[in-house]
Each structure stands twice: as C-alpha cells, then as structure tokens.
Amino acid sequence: MSEREEGIVREFLEFFVTGDVARAAKYFAEDGSYRTYAWQDPTVGVAAIRAVWERQAAAWNDFHYDLVNIASAGPVVFTERIDRGQ
C-alpha cells in the first residue's frame, strides 16, 4: 500500500467535486496525457487536459463519485469509481 500516493489521488478527485479542474490539471506533468475514452487519441499537456475538463464540467452539474476500491503498488494507484452528475 502506498498511502501517500493514494492520498494524492483522493485529493485530485476532490478537485472535481469542488469544480476546480484547474487545480486538478496541475497534478499532471507538462507532457502528461489523458483519455476520456480508451478508443480516443490522448489529450497531451496540462493546458489541453484542463481545456477538455472545462468543457466536460460545463455539461455536468453536481459531480460526485463513489470510490468502490483503491489499491496501489509503489507509485501506481488504481481506482474503481462510480462517477455521478446531472
């Protein structure tokens, strides 16, 4: 178990609950990538990731999540979540 890394992931997720996607995006490296769906090309870079999340946030209201499971091995953290919003 990597309590530190799991804590970082929990902090990251809470920024979505509060609607602060700008702070959430800062958790990525400048060359980090994000995929909304596995079949899409990745979005690369903090500014681009933030822009995707801002567009998504405009369509969601009252975002929250249920964390079903969380596990880690060293710096790698896996989450199983149910995301909800209106």
Give the topology, please.
Blueprint: H1 3-17, H2 21-25, E1 33-34, E2 43-44, H3 46-59, E3 64-73, E4 76-84
Average pLDDT number: 91
In CATH, the topology is named Nuclear Transport Factor 2, Chain: A
Distance between the termini: 34 Å
Order of helices and strands: HHEEHEE
Structural class: alpha+beta
Approximately how much beta-strand content do the residues carry? 25-35%
Using only C-alpha atoms, the radius of gyration works out to: 13 Å
Number of domains: 1
What helical percentage do the residues reach? Answer: 25-40%
Total strands: the figure is 4
Provide the CATH architecture.
Roll
Provide the low-confidence segments as ranges: none
How is the main sheet built?
Answer: 2 strands, antiparallel
Strand order of the largest sheet: 1-2
Give the overall shape: globular
Counting DSSP H or I runs of 4 or more residues, the number of helices is: 3
CATH domain class: Alpha Beta
Structure description:
The chain is of the alpha+beta class. It is globular and about 35 Å long. It has 3 helices and 4 strands. The protein has helices at 3-17, 21-25, 46-59, and strands at 33-34, 43-44, 64-73, 76-84. Helices cover 40% and strands 27% of the residues. The protein has a single domain (3-84), classed as Nuclear Transport Factor 2, Chain: A. 6% of the residues are buried. The strands form 2 sheets. Strands 1-2 form a two-stranded antiparallel sheet. A two-stranded antiparallel ribbon has the order 3-4.
